Amino acid sequence: MTKLMAIIHKFLKKEHGFTLIEMMIVLVIISILLLVAVPNLAKNQATANAKGCEATIDLIRSQKLAYEIETGENLTDLQKLVEEEYVDTLTCPNGEPVNDNMLKFSTRTTTP
């Protein structure tokens, strides 16, 4: 039993760790992964912002039409949609404000 304890004690006293080469290899691999991932994340963020803005513009456009049908008047101030609780906000998810000119031109293409 003491022999087993001596072997365990010897094993536990041994210093374990990573060599400098191993650490450098890990850092190189992580750097390569970051070089690949970061540009894709930035591109996906821009695409998501654009799609979110398109969806917000479509929503405001449809709510403006609903307002005009319900009230029978031509809406000239979009802020009235917020006041009458047709929409919560007049800004895109990226913080860009939606104006009346954006509602006139649709960026989406419809397929039959």
From TrEMBL:
Coiled coil (residue ranges): none
Membrane topology: Single-pass membrane protein
Transmembrane domains' residue ranges: 20-42
Gene3D superfamilies: Glycoprotein, Type 4 Pilin
Highest taxon of source: Bacteria
InterPro entries in UniProt: ComGC (IPR016940), N_methyl_site (IPR012902), Pilin-like (IPR045584)
The protein, known as: Competence protein ComGC
Organism annotation: Evansella vedderi
